[in-house]
């Protein structure tokens, strides 16, 4: 699935719509890149660069939109909102540059703790890897985040924050789900490029790698780690080594993203 888009464009948004449907914050101190920040129910819109000189500000995209696809049933519903934001029935998606995209999959019955015994992230520096409050962070661009999705949903639920139908289904399943999320900033694509071929982002999951062994645990680091792993979780570790988890992750992503981008009626 696509978990987040950051879109930039030199198009000016419909300010009347933004003011009627959202709340506005104004950066009067020029500490932020954009002067106006509009919080809408399903998107955040930034506009009017003002942090630098007039010459530099003029070279920066006039509008930035942070939008979470999980709030929309499908791509056509999201683009319907984008057309409203710019008051353009024929909005050209090529005019919306993707400055950030997050892709994600939720994998069933995998423990974050047990991942550490078999997982490595390719081509990262030591300083870009850390674990904070149970979430694994690795790399910069792309940046990997791995965490207990069910726990994260329950935390938001307790705070009274929005829970989607999909997230409710994860809670109701009674199963454990781990979120594998990859944040990409060097996208070099516009929104039409991604809409035309969303599965092209699947290879980013190859950033992850899970160590496979011949089953001999009599020596080495896995044998050492095994002494500290609860017996009921050892089966999960075996499955992560014996199955190609990365391919399953990519297959899950392809299936979900193809369905979300499929042609459906606009809402």
- How does the overall form come out from the CA principal axes? globular
Low-confidence stretches: 213-229
Tell me the radius of gyration.
Answer: 21 Å
Helix content: 25-40%
Total domains, how many? 2
Number of DSSP strand runs: 13
Q: What percentage of amino acids are in beta strands?
A: 25-35%
Q: Which class of secondary structure composition applies to the elements?
A: alpha+beta
Average pLDDT: 85
Q: Count of helical segments?
A: 10
Distance between the termini: 20 Å
Please provide a written account of the structure.
- There is one protein chain.
- The protein has helices at residues 15-21, 54-57, 75-86, 112-115, 149-158, 165-173, 191-196, 221-226, 231-242, 245-261, and strands at 2-9, 23-26, 34-39, 43-49, 63-67, 97-108, 119-121, 129-132, 135-138, 143-148, 177-184, 189-190, 208-210.
- It has 267 residues and is of the alpha+beta class.
- A hairpin with a 2-residue loop joins β8 and β9.
- The chain is globular.
- The relative contact order is 0.16.
- The model is unreliable at 213-229 (pLDDT under 50).
């Amino acid at each position: 699935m696509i978990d987040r888009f950051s879109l930039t464009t030199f198009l000016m948004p419909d300010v009347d719509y933004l003011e009627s449907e959202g709340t506005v914050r104004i950066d009067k101190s020029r500490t932020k890149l954009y002067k106006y920040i509009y919080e809408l129910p399903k998107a955040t819109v930034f506009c009017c660069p003002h942090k630098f000189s007039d010459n530099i500000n003029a070279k920066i995209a006039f509008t930035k939109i942070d939008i979470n696809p999980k709030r929309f049933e499908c791509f056509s519903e999201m683009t319907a909102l984008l057309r409203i934001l710019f008051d353009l029935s024929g909005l050209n998606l090529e005019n919306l540059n993707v400055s950030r995209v997050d892709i994600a999959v939720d994998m069933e019955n995998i423990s974050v703790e047990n991942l550490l015994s078999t997982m490595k992230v390719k081509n990262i520096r030591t300083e870009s890897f850390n674990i904070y409050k149970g979430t694994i962070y690795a790399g910069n661009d792309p940046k990997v985040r791995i965490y207990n999705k069910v726990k994260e949903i329950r935390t938001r639920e307790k705070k009274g924050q929005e829970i989607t139908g999909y997230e409710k289904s994860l809670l109701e399943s009674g199963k454990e789900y781990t979120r594998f999320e990859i944040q990409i900033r060097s996208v070099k694509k516009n929104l039409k490029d991604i809409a035309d071929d969303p599965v092209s982002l699947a290879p980013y999951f190859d950033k992850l790698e899970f160590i496979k062994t011949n089953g001999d645990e009599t020596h080495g680091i896995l044998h050492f780690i095994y002494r500290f792993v609860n017996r009921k979780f050892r089966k999960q570790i075996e499955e992560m080594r014996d199955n190609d988890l990365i391919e399953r992750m990519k297959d899950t992503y392809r299936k979900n993203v193809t369905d979300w981008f499929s042609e459906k009626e606009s809402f």
